[in-house]
Amino acid sequence: MSTGSLALLSLLPIISVAIFLVLLRWPASRAMPIAYLVAAGLALLVWEVSATKILAASINGLIVAGTLIYIIFGAILLLNTLQQSGAIATIRQGFSDITPDRRIQVIIIAWLFGSFIEGSAGFGTPAAVAVPLMVGLGFPAMAAVVAGMIIQSTPVSFGAMGTPILVGVSTGLSADPEMAAYAAERGFAEWDQFLEFIAARVALIHALAGTFIPLLVTAVMTRFFGANRSFAEGFRVWKFALFAAFAMTIPYLLVATFLGPEFPSMFGGMIGLAIVVIAAKAGFLMPPANENWDFDSPDKWDEEWTGRLKHSVDAPAPASMGLIRAWSPYVFVAGLLILTRLRALDLESILRADFVTWNWPQIFGSDISASFQILWSPGTIFILVSLITIGLHGLRLPDYGQAMSSSLKTLLPASTALVFTVPMVQVFINSSGGAAGYEQMPIALAEGVANVAGSAWPFFATFIGGLGAFVAGSNTVSNMMFSLFQFGVGERILADPIWIVALQAVGGASGNIICVHNVVAASAVAGLVGKEGAVIRKTLLPFLYYALISGSIGYGIVNLSSGVLNVGFVLAALIVLTIIYHIVKYNRRQTI
């Protein structure tokens, strides 16, 4: 079968997701079983993968879904514990003391705090922490999920202490034994130095593309969830949004350049959070008090905005609950995530040791294995901190029991979609090794695109990386699948292959914005069942912006020999000028 035909067939599971989930607005619990059947049918009938391997991939998907459900439960339990103790009311009051403006709050929580948590733990943890926190503060559940998804871009390549680079790119490239020799030829005696070189390029592209992400978060929020349905109200905080962007991306880029891939997102988020909160309290670049923006009253919200996870906006903050005490559980979460993942402490070797890990190697004799590392899971940290909170906040056991009961009620209906989503992903990416001899579906699809794109490939490289994350739910997995392929395409079109690999890593990060896997999980955390397609429709524009501008920057860089005014840099400039035009237009309209 031709490369083009295989590419089109490989696209069918993704098309089915787009049609049923996004266009027809079916809930993921109905749409994803169809996508699973399409992927399994292709694997069995076209790729001629054995039924045993398809079953093994499906079971592995169910196990992975279970690990996600465990994380989601822990995140919801922690939030409900803080609701019961009154800490959420105190945290809400603390944000109101900085500013009641929801645009500023979403930048601080989603962009800065979310980036810090992404750098610490990755793998969807920012949504599990930031999304329920925003819901607890009075954000509509869908607004919280959309904001949590949009920021899953710039910090993702360096999430979980650099895992997408140190594991994803490294594993993907090292599959070719000649890559070590290539790195040595480029002057890198150690493989880690080569990865640091790639990471610096990834960070540069991210720092440029991420400049407008906080602004896009506010604009999307005011357009879809404001009383006036206006992009303009979001663009009016452009000064603060750009300041918050640079407060994160400048230290992020410096850390990536001089310290390597482990800490850019963590340090960028932490430093940016300190700078921005201090500046906001001082009123620096803040909107005037008479222009503070808030959501309409909850009784006027669209029904699809709200989920099973409820907030109590009118609940007063306990007089005995100070701000530090209220925030202390989240401080414990962040601290434990950092401590367990610091390579210098090497706690990973204990927490992921065989004697505390459940394994199912070579399921049904296939090459697919499953495992669950309960002590390494962020879900365990969330549950542990919720128990610590009983003592920290003096919570009565009946109140904790109520938090537990509410969490289970929220979790169970939201878990259905994951039971089909993750197995579909596992069948899709484990479709190699069939009797037909075809590459796995993601590679077949990428090869078809590469044959059409030719020298314009840098524009497509980010979208292929995004596609990998869209179906796999992970920037790390996308990098594993496509890094070596992207390197080969770079050599084929006579471009610097390292820049093409960097575009893969950036694109893989941007794919998290619309990734079905992550949308379903984030929606589950917020108790938002059946509205996953609506979330993706709202995050599609930020994804297209990120993938297109980073691809344009990449094209401009690899074709720099033809001059600064090449197509890539011109297109990137046009995108930036378009955003600037709308900033000026909306702010001029405000002053008239």
Hey, roughly how much beta strand do the residues contain? under 5%
Helix content: over 70%
- The separation of the N and C termini measures 62 Å
Order of helices and strands: HHHHHHHHHHHHHHHHEEHHHHHHHHHH
| Total beta-strand segments | 2
Biggest sheet features: 2 strands, antiparallel
Number of helices: 26
Shape: globular
Structural class: mainly alpha
Strand order across the biggest sheet?
A: 1-2
Summarize the structure.
The chain is mainly alpha-helical.
Map the helices and strands.
Elements: H1 3-23, H2 28-45, H3 51-85, H4 87-98, H5 102-120, H6 125-136, H7 141-150, H8 159-174, H9 179-185, H10 191-209, H11 213-225, H12 231-235, H13 238-258, H14 264-281, H15 323-341, H16 348-351, E1 358-360, E2 370-372, H17 378-392, H18 397-414, H19 416-429, H20 441-453, H21 457-472, H22 475-492, H23 497-510, H24 516-525, H25 532-558, H26 567-591
Antiparallel strand pairs: 1-2
Helix pairs in contact: 1-2, 1-20, 1-25, 2-19, 3-6, 3-17, 3-18, 3-19, 3-24, 4-15, 5-6, 5-8, 5-11, 5-13, 5-14, 6-7, 6-24, 7-11, 7-24, 7-25, 8-10, 8-22, 10-13, 10-23, 10-25, 11-13, 13-14, 15-17, 18-24, 19-24, 20-21, 20-22, 21-22, 21-23, 21-25, 22-23, 23-25, 25-26
